[in-house]
Protein backbone atom coordinates (compact mmCIF):
# COMPACT_ATOMS: atom_id res chain seq x y z
CA UNK A 1 0.00 0.00 0.00
CA UNK A 2 2.81 2.35 0.89
CA UNK A 3 4.60 1.50 -2.36
CA UNK A 4 1.51 2.38 -4.43
CA UNK A 5 1.21 5.71 -2.58
CA UNK A 6 4.81 6.62 -3.35
CA UNK A 7 4.27 5.73 -7.00
CA UNK A 8 1.17 8.00 -7.18
CA UNK A 9 3.05 10.87 -5.59
CA UNK A 10 5.93 10.45 -8.03
CA UNK A 11 3.61 10.45 -11.04
CA UNK A 12 1.85 13.52 -9.72
CA UNK A 13 5.18 15.37 -9.32
CA UNK A 14 6.21 14.43 -12.83
CA UNK A 15 2.91 15.66 -14.25
CA UNK A 16 3.17 18.93 -12.33
CA UNK A 17 6.72 19.41 -13.58
CA UNK A 18 5.64 18.84 -17.19
CA UNK A 19 2.68 21.18 -16.74
CA UNK A 20 4.79 24.05 -15.40
CA UNK A 21 7.40 23.43 -18.11
CA UNK A 22 4.66 23.60 -20.77
CA UNK A 23 3.27 26.83 -19.33
CA UNK A 24 6.71 28.38 -19.11
CA UNK A 25 7.62 27.42 -22.68
CA UNK A 26 4.55 29.04 -24.22
CA UNK A 27 4.89 32.12 -22.07
CA UNK A 28 8.46 32.51 -23.29
CA UNK A 29 7.34 32.02 -26.88
CA UNK A 30 4.57 34.62 -26.45
CA UNK A 31 7.04 37.11 -25.00
CA UNK A 32 9.45 36.59 -27.90
CA UNK A 33 6.61 37.04 -30.38
CA UNK A 34 5.41 40.16 -28.56
CA UNK A 35 8.95 41.58 -28.51
CA UNK A 36 9.34 40.85 -32.21
CA UNK A 37 6.04 42.57 -32.96
CA UNK A 38 7.14 45.61 -30.96
CA UNK A 39 10.44 45.93 -32.88
CA UNK A 40 8.87 45.49 -36.34
CA UNK A 41 7.27 48.62 -37.86
CA UNK A 42 3.96 48.02 -39.60
CA UNK A 43 3.85 50.10 -42.79
CA UNK A 44 2.42 50.14 -46.31
CA UNK A 45 4.63 49.44 -49.29
CA UNK A 46 4.53 49.99 -53.07
CA UNK A 47 6.27 47.86 -55.72
CA UNK A 48 7.91 49.95 -58.44
CA UNK A 49 6.83 48.84 -61.90
CA UNK A 50 7.33 50.48 -65.33
CA UNK A 51 4.27 52.27 -66.68
CA UNK A 52 3.32 54.67 -69.48
CA UNK A 53 3.97 58.33 -68.70
CA UNK A 54 2.61 60.98 -71.03
CA UNK A 55 4.64 64.14 -70.49
CA UNK A 56 2.09 66.93 -70.55
CA UNK A 57 1.81 70.17 -68.63
CA UNK A 58 -0.89 72.81 -68.25
CA UNK A 59 0.00 76.49 -68.03
CA UNK A 60 -1.94 79.74 -68.06
CA UNK A 61 -2.00 81.78 -71.24
CA UNK A 62 -3.56 84.94 -72.59
CA UNK A 63 -5.42 85.45 -75.86
CA UNK A 64 -4.25 88.35 -78.01
CA UNK A 65 -5.24 89.80 -81.34
CA UNK A 66 -2.62 88.87 -83.93
CA UNK A 67 -2.26 92.60 -84.73
CA UNK A 68 -3.39 95.31 -82.34
CA UNK A 69 -2.61 99.03 -82.34
CA UNK A 70 -3.54 102.01 -80.21
CA UNK A 71 -4.48 104.67 -82.74
CA UNK A 72 -2.67 107.94 -82.03
CA UNK A 73 -1.66 110.86 -84.22
CA UNK A 74 1.93 111.99 -84.71
CA UNK A 75 1.21 115.71 -84.28
CA UNK A 76 -1.19 117.91 -82.33
CA UNK A 77 -4.26 119.42 -83.94
CA UNK A 78 -7.99 119.93 -83.95
CA UNK A 79 -10.26 117.10 -85.12
CA UNK A 80 -12.51 118.08 -88.03
CA UNK A 81 -13.59 114.64 -89.23
CA UNK A 82 -14.07 111.25 -87.57
CA UNK A 83 -14.65 107.88 -89.22
CA UNK A 84 -14.28 105.44 -86.30
CA UNK A 85 -17.15 102.93 -86.62
CA UNK A 86 -17.08 101.25 -83.21
CA UNK A 87 -17.07 97.47 -83.46
CA UNK A 88 -17.01 97.60 -87.25
CA UNK A 89 -14.56 96.26 -89.80
CA UNK A 90 -12.42 98.69 -91.81
CA UNK A 91 -10.00 98.08 -94.67
CA UNK A 92 -6.32 98.97 -94.59
CA UNK A 93 -5.77 102.61 -95.59
CA UNK A 94 -9.26 103.81 -94.61
CA UNK A 95 -9.25 107.42 -93.37
CA UNK A 96 -10.26 107.30 -89.69
CA UNK A 97 -9.49 110.77 -88.29
CA UNK A 98 -8.80 114.08 -90.04
CA UNK A 99 -7.21 117.12 -88.36
CA UNK A 100 -7.43 120.75 -89.42
CA UNK A 101 -4.90 121.37 -92.23
CA UNK A 102 -6.21 124.38 -94.20
CA UNK A 103 -3.03 126.34 -93.53
CA UNK A 104 -0.88 123.47 -94.76
CA UNK A 105 -3.02 123.05 -97.88
CA UNK A 106 -2.72 126.80 -98.63
CA UNK A 107 1.04 126.66 -98.28
CA UNK A 108 1.13 123.64 -100.59
CA UNK A 109 -0.79 125.55 -103.26
CA UNK A 110 1.65 128.46 -102.95
CA UNK A 111 4.60 126.15 -103.43
CA UNK A 112 2.94 124.49 -106.42
CA UNK A 113 2.40 127.94 -108.03
CA UNK A 114 6.04 128.84 -107.44
CA UNK A 115 7.09 125.55 -108.98
CA UNK A 116 5.00 126.20 -112.09
CA UNK A 117 6.65 129.60 -112.62
CA UNK A 118 10.16 128.29 -112.02
CA UNK A 119 9.59 125.39 -114.42
CA UNK A 120 8.55 127.84 -117.15
CA UNK A 121 11.69 129.87 -116.54
CA UNK A 122 13.76 126.71 -116.55
CA UNK A 123 12.25 125.56 -119.86
CA UNK A 124 13.05 128.93 -121.54
CA UNK A 125 16.57 128.91 -120.17
CA UNK A 126 17.04 125.38 -121.44
CA UNK A 127 16.50 126.73 -124.98
CA UNK A 128 18.75 129.74 -124.35
CA UNK A 129 21.63 127.66 -122.98
CA UNK A 130 21.76 125.80 -126.28
CA UNK A 131 22.59 129.05 -128.16
CA UNK A 132 24.70 130.52 -125.34
CA UNK A 133 21.95 133.04 -124.61
CA UNK A 134 22.40 132.60 -120.85
CA UNK A 135 25.29 131.85 -118.58
CA UNK A 136 25.77 128.35 -117.23
CA UNK A 137 25.66 129.71 -113.69
CA UNK A 138 22.20 131.31 -114.16
CA UNK A 139 20.93 128.12 -115.72
CA UNK A 140 22.13 126.00 -112.81
CA UNK A 141 20.68 128.46 -110.26
CA UNK A 142 17.26 128.13 -111.88
CA UNK A 143 17.53 124.34 -111.82
CA UNK A 144 18.45 124.50 -108.14
CA UNK A 145 15.37 126.62 -107.38
CA UNK A 146 13.13 124.11 -109.20
CA UNK A 147 14.52 121.18 -107.21
CA UNK A 148 14.28 123.11 -103.94
CA UNK A 149 10.62 123.93 -104.50
CA UNK A 150 9.90 120.25 -105.34
CA UNK A 151 11.55 119.21 -102.09
CA UNK A 152 9.49 121.78 -100.17
CA UNK A 153 6.33 120.42 -101.79
CA UNK A 154 7.22 116.85 -100.71
CA UNK A 155 7.82 118.10 -97.19
CA UNK A 156 4.49 119.91 -97.16
CA UNK A 157 2.66 116.81 -98.37
CA UNK A 158 4.28 114.80 -95.58
CA UNK A 159 3.04 117.33 -93.04
CA UNK A 160 -0.46 117.09 -94.52
CA UNK A 161 -0.35 113.28 -94.28
CA UNK A 162 0.47 113.62 -90.58
CA UNK A 163 -2.88 115.36 -90.15
CA UNK A 164 -4.62 112.13 -91.11
CA UNK A 165 -4.97 108.83 -89.24
CA UNK A 166 -5.51 105.84 -91.50
CA UNK A 167 -6.11 102.15 -90.74
CA UNK A 168 -2.71 100.39 -90.66
CA UNK A 169 -4.29 97.02 -91.51
CA UNK A 170 -7.66 95.31 -91.94
CA UNK A 171 -9.32 95.12 -88.53
CA UNK A 172 -12.10 95.90 -86.10
CA UNK A 173 -12.32 99.35 -84.53
CA UNK A 174 -12.74 99.46 -80.75
CA UNK A 175 -14.37 102.21 -78.72
CA UNK A 176 -13.50 105.74 -79.81
CA UNK A 177 -12.30 108.25 -77.24
CA UNK A 178 -12.65 111.56 -79.12
CA UNK A 179 -15.26 113.73 -80.79
CA UNK A 180 -15.21 116.27 -83.60
CA UNK A 181 -13.69 119.54 -82.39
CA UNK A 182 -11.39 117.94 -79.83
CA UNK A 183 -7.83 119.20 -79.71
CA UNK A 184 -5.49 116.25 -79.48
CA UNK A 185 -1.75 115.67 -79.18
CA UNK A 186 0.57 112.76 -79.89
CA UNK A 187 -0.33 111.00 -76.61
CA UNK A 188 -4.11 111.12 -77.07
CA UNK A 189 -5.65 107.65 -77.55
CA UNK A 190 -8.15 107.92 -80.41
CA UNK A 191 -9.29 104.28 -80.46
CA UNK A 192 -7.88 100.80 -80.96
CA UNK A 193 -7.86 98.54 -84.00
CA UNK A 194 -7.47 94.77 -83.84
CA UNK A 195 -7.06 92.21 -86.59
CA UNK A 196 -10.31 90.30 -86.88
CA UNK A 197 -9.21 87.16 -88.71
CA UNK A 198 -6.43 85.81 -86.48
CA UNK A 199 -5.69 85.37 -82.78
CA UNK A 200 -2.57 84.32 -80.91
CA UNK A 201 -1.81 83.02 -77.42
CA UNK A 202 1.12 84.05 -75.26
CA UNK A 203 2.08 81.69 -72.43
CA UNK A 204 5.09 80.73 -70.34
CA UNK A 205 6.60 77.26 -69.74
CA UNK A 206 9.11 76.36 -67.00
CA UNK A 207 12.77 76.46 -67.88
CA UNK A 208 13.27 72.68 -67.81
CA UNK A 209 10.73 72.23 -70.61
CA UNK A 210 12.19 74.98 -72.81
CA UNK A 211 14.14 72.58 -75.03
CA UNK A 212 10.94 70.64 -75.78
CA UNK A 213 9.21 73.63 -77.42
CA UNK A 214 9.64 74.05 -81.17
CA UNK A 215 7.95 75.91 -84.02
CA UNK A 216 5.04 73.95 -85.47
CA UNK A 217 4.28 72.17 -82.19
CA UNK A 218 0.56 71.58 -81.65
CA UNK A 219 -1.05 72.68 -78.39
CA UNK A 220 -4.60 72.67 -77.05
CA UNK A 221 -6.28 75.21 -74.82
CA UNK A 222 -9.54 75.85 -73.05
CA UNK A 223 -11.05 79.10 -71.94
CA UNK A 224 -10.50 79.97 -68.28
CA UNK A 225 -14.25 79.93 -67.58
CA UNK A 226 -15.07 76.90 -69.77
CA UNK A 227 -12.91 73.78 -69.42
CA UNK A 228 -15.10 71.60 -71.63
CA UNK A 229 -14.56 72.99 -75.13
CA UNK A 230 -11.02 72.66 -76.49
CA UNK A 231 -9.33 74.69 -79.21
CA UNK A 232 -6.16 74.03 -81.22
CA UNK A 233 -3.17 76.29 -81.73
CA UNK A 234 0.27 76.02 -83.35
CA UNK A 235 3.49 77.36 -81.85
CA UNK A 236 4.98 80.01 -84.16
CA UNK A 237 7.82 81.44 -82.06
CA UNK A 238 9.54 81.57 -78.68
CA UNK A 239 11.40 84.35 -76.95
CA UNK A 240 14.64 82.33 -77.32
CA UNK A 241 15.71 83.33 -73.85
CA UNK A 242 14.75 82.40 -70.28
CA UNK A 243 13.31 85.21 -68.15
CA UNK A 244 15.76 85.88 -65.31
CA UNK A 245 13.05 86.73 -62.80
CA UNK A 246 10.62 83.84 -63.38
CA UNK A 247 12.93 81.25 -65.02
CA UNK A 248 10.24 80.71 -67.65
CA UNK A 249 10.28 80.72 -71.45
CA UNK A 250 7.75 82.87 -73.30
CA UNK A 251 5.97 81.07 -76.13
CA UNK A 252 3.59 82.35 -78.80
CA UNK A 253 1.06 80.19 -80.67
CA UNK A 254 -1.36 80.92 -83.52
CA UNK A 255 -4.98 79.95 -82.88
CA UNK A 256 -6.37 77.64 -85.55
CA UNK A 257 -10.04 78.39 -84.97
CA UNK A 258 -12.48 81.24 -84.54
CA UNK A 259 -15.32 81.55 -82.07
CA UNK A 260 -17.29 84.23 -80.28
CA UNK A 261 -15.84 82.89 -77.03
CA UNK A 262 -12.30 83.74 -78.14
CA UNK A 263 -11.93 87.35 -77.05
CA UNK A 264 -8.53 89.10 -76.97
CA UNK A 265 -7.32 89.53 -73.42
CA UNK A 266 -9.10 86.45 -72.06
CA UNK A 267 -7.21 83.91 -69.91
CA UNK A 268 -6.74 80.36 -71.16
CA UNK A 269 -5.46 77.01 -69.88
CA UNK A 270 -2.87 75.75 -72.37
CA UNK A 271 -2.11 72.01 -72.50
CA UNK A 272 1.21 70.87 -73.97
CA UNK A 273 2.12 67.25 -74.74
CA UNK A 274 5.90 66.90 -74.57
CA UNK A 275 6.18 63.19 -75.48
CA UNK A 276 5.70 59.84 -73.73
CA UNK A 277 7.79 57.23 -71.90
CA UNK A 278 6.39 53.66 -71.81
CA UNK A 279 8.91 52.56 -69.15
CA UNK A 280 8.65 55.39 -66.65
CA UNK A 281 8.98 54.59 -62.94
CA UNK A 282 6.14 56.32 -61.09
CA UNK A 283 5.81 56.25 -57.29
CA UNK A 284 3.31 57.86 -54.89
CA UNK A 285 4.32 61.38 -53.95
CA UNK A 286 3.96 60.65 -50.20
CA UNK A 287 6.94 58.28 -50.45
CA UNK A 288 9.31 61.19 -51.15
CA UNK A 289 11.45 62.46 -48.26
CA UNK A 290 12.62 66.00 -49.14
CA UNK A 291 16.10 66.97 -47.97
CA UNK A 292 18.21 70.08 -48.23
CA UNK A 293 19.91 69.30 -51.54
CA UNK A 294 18.18 66.15 -52.79
CA UNK A 295 15.33 63.70 -52.24
CA UNK A 296 15.19 60.15 -50.92
CA UNK A 297 12.86 57.19 -50.42
CA UNK A 298 12.89 54.15 -48.14
CA UNK A 299 13.35 50.75 -49.79
CA UNK A 300 12.44 47.46 -48.07
CA UNK A 301 15.24 44.87 -48.48
CA UNK A 302 15.25 41.59 -46.57
CA UNK A 303 12.70 42.97 -44.16
CA UNK A 304 14.72 46.06 -43.27
CA UNK A 305 14.50 49.75 -44.21
CA UNK A 306 17.18 51.35 -46.39
CA UNK A 307 17.32 55.02 -47.41
CA UNK A 308 18.08 55.68 -51.11
CA UNK A 309 18.74 59.05 -52.80
CA UNK A 310 16.73 59.61 -55.97
CA UNK A 311 16.17 62.16 -58.73
CA UNK A 312 12.67 63.03 -59.89
CA UNK A 313 11.10 64.17 -63.14
CA UNK A 314 7.52 64.95 -64.09
CA UNK A 315 4.95 65.28 -61.29
CA UNK A 316 1.39 64.09 -61.74
CA UNK A 317 -1.61 64.53 -59.43
CA UNK A 318 -0.66 61.73 -57.00
CA UNK A 319 2.54 60.28 -58.45
CA UNK A 320 5.96 61.48 -59.49
CA UNK A 321 8.48 60.12 -61.97
CA UNK A 322 11.80 58.81 -60.62
CA UNK A 323 14.65 59.16 -63.13
CA UNK A 324 17.53 57.88 -60.97
CA UNK A 325 17.93 55.77 -57.84
CA UNK A 326 15.27 53.08 -58.29
CA UNK A 327 14.93 49.90 -60.32
CA UNK A 328 11.81 48.00 -61.42
CA UNK A 329 10.73 45.62 -58.69
CA UNK A 330 11.99 47.73 -55.78
CA UNK A 331 9.63 47.89 -52.80
CA UNK A 332 9.31 51.38 -51.34
CA UNK A 333 7.62 52.40 -48.11
CA UNK A 334 4.78 54.89 -48.45
CA UNK A 335 3.50 55.23 -44.87
CA UNK A 336 5.09 55.80 -41.47
CA UNK A 337 8.30 57.00 -43.11
CA UNK A 338 8.90 59.67 -40.45
CA UNK A 339 9.31 57.00 -37.75
CA UNK A 340 11.73 54.74 -39.62
CA UNK A 341 15.50 54.63 -39.34
CA UNK A 342 18.15 52.90 -41.40
CA UNK A 343 17.83 49.08 -41.03
CA UNK A 344 14.60 49.29 -39.04
CA UNK A 345 12.73 45.95 -39.16
CA UNK A 346 9.61 46.15 -41.26
CA UNK A 347 6.26 44.47 -41.42
CA UNK A 348 4.41 45.74 -44.45
CA UNK A 349 1.47 45.14 -46.71
CA UNK A 350 1.92 45.82 -50.42
CA UNK A 351 -0.63 48.08 -52.09
CA UNK A 352 -1.07 49.21 -55.72
CA UNK A 353 -2.50 52.55 -56.66
Automatic annotation (TrEMBL):
Q: Which residues form a coiled coil?
A: 101-166
Q: Name one Pfam family in it.
A: HH_MFP_RND
Q: What are the YknX-like C-terminal permuted SH3-like domain coordinates in residue numbering?
A: 281-338
Sequence intervals crossing the membrane: 6-25
NCBIfam families listed in its UniProt record: RND_mfp
Q: Which keywords are on file for this protein?
A: Coiled coil, Membrane, Transmembrane, Transmembrane helix
The Multidrug resistance protein MdtA-like barrel-sandwich hybrid domain, residue ranges: 68-188
The segment(s) forming the Multidrug resistance protein MdtA-like alpha-helical hairpin domain are 102-160
Instruction: Give the SUPFAM superfamilies listed for this entry.
Output: HlyD-like secretion proteins
Task: Write down the species.
Answer: Bacteroides sedimenti
Member of which family?
Belongs to the membrane fusion protein (MFP) (TC 8.A.1) family.
Occurrences of domain CusB-like beta-barrel (ranges): 202-273
Q: Does the keyword Thylakoid apply?
A: no
What name does the UniProt record give this protein?
Answer: MexH family multidrug efflux RND transporter periplasmic adaptor subunit
Amino acid sequence: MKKKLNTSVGVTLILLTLFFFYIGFFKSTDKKQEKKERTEKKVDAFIVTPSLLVSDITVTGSLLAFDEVDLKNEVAGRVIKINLPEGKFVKEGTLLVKLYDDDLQANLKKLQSQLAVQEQIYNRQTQLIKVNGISQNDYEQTLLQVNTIKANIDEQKALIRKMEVRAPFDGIIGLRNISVGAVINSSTLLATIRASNKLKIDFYVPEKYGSEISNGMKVRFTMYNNNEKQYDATVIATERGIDNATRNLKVRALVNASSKELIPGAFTNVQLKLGSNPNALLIPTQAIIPQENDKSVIIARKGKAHFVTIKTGIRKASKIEVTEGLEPGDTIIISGILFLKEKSRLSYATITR
